[in-house]
Amino acid sequence: xxxxxxxxxxxxxxxxxxxxxxxxxxxxxxxxxxxxxxxxxxxxxxxxxxxxxxxxxxxxxxxxxxxxxxxxxxxxxxxxxxxxxxxxxxxxxxxxxxxxxxxxxxxxxxxxxxxxxxxxxxxxxxxxxxxxxxxxxxxxxxxxxxxxxxxxxxxxxxxxxxxxxxxxxxxxxxxxxxxxxxxxxxxxxxxxxxxxxxxxxxxxxxxxxxxxxxxxxxxxxxxxxxxxxxxxxxxxxxxxxxxxxxxxxxxxxxxxxxxxxxxxxxxxxxxxxxxxxxxxxxxxxxxxxxxxxxxxxxxxxxxxxxxxxxxxxxxxxxxxxxxxxxxxxxxxxxxxxxxxxxxxxxxxxxxxxxxxxxxxxxxxxxxxxxxxxxxxxxxxxxxxxxxxxxxxxxxxxxxxxxxxxxxxxxxxxxxxxxxxxxxxxxxxxxxxxxxxxxxxxxxxxxxxxxxxxxxxxxxxxxxxxxxxxxxx
Length: 472
Fold this sequence. Notes:
Elements: H1 4-43, H2 48-79, H3 88-92, H4 95-119, H5 124-139, H6 154-185, E1 190-191, H7 192-220, H8 224-229, H9 231-258, E2 265-266, H10 268-292, H11 308-315, H12 327-333, H13 345-375, H14 387-397, H15 411-414, H16 418-425, H17 427-442, H18 464-471
Antiparallel strand pairs: 1-2
């Protein structure tokens, strides 16, 4: 594969993340449609528009999962096309290809079931068929996971992974559909029993997720040193932190829902606060889970582990380093043309300076956004402009061996390095965030409600001095 290998590995991770997101939309939509939407359709036909929107989102999820799996299968075939001993017949006989084809069948079945439900949205049998197809799509992801490659306990691990995939998809996908339904519903009130139904669905998914996740972690991480000293362990720890945050938010939301009387109606704004943050963290969790698939299980990494002391030293808080070697000094001691060359002290100093300055810019951006949102300070509403200096800084500093600092390498040449590729791919969204400033600046702020402690956000309509006094 040559040097394109790292880029292909990055593409696999991104495609897997998109596939997990797609299956979450598909299965979450099928579950919400059966447990939450179907009872509403029978008692409140006006919800037909929201049901159609959820069904479309389910279909787009299946399409996304199909496209991602087709892209992954293409990369698999392209990676071994010129490898000796890998004929097309040999490749097609591998379990990985079989699992990929099974996912494609599950995606097509989900799309067919969506079409059937669209013709009769209130038909319980058709929604059950949609749920079955989406379950097949989600559970088939286990065939492309670490569980399929284990030599011992493979059947048990595959079953645990399939349940883990299903629970994650129902929870995260259900949250995404709930947010979409709230937006569709507009200013109308929602019955509290709808939230209660979704809460029960999410509770079952979270319980399954916790049990299966614990079992898989015990199988793939042998001890605390493996959790701390390997890339797999580090990503798993990140996933656990996100999961803990989601559990905390879910517990608060669950408690709030249980306190609502059955006949109580809830405003969409309250629903949105319940679901938006959870859904955003859930999607982040899916991308972290996709990254886990790119690293070998911690139990298999014995020689190249970082010690707990080394990890603790890196995480010890210290003031940021704001000194950097010049480009000439860096070129004198580092091989910038070889991305796999050993890192020198100058490389580390250059990288740490980049991350520290970028972190300070992001911190300032967040503070400005908070002043705009919470204190209502007029000039702080221009906070999206802070993305401009961040983008320019990273363009010139992030990759010293590539364009525009390199005198020999062009922009296209640098895209062969996955690190450079990520910096270039994610630069346009930052510029897009800056361009969104124009819409904010061109439209005057809405007058909002009268000054009151009970308004949302707290103190909306009040002067920023009054808000700060309340918050402090």
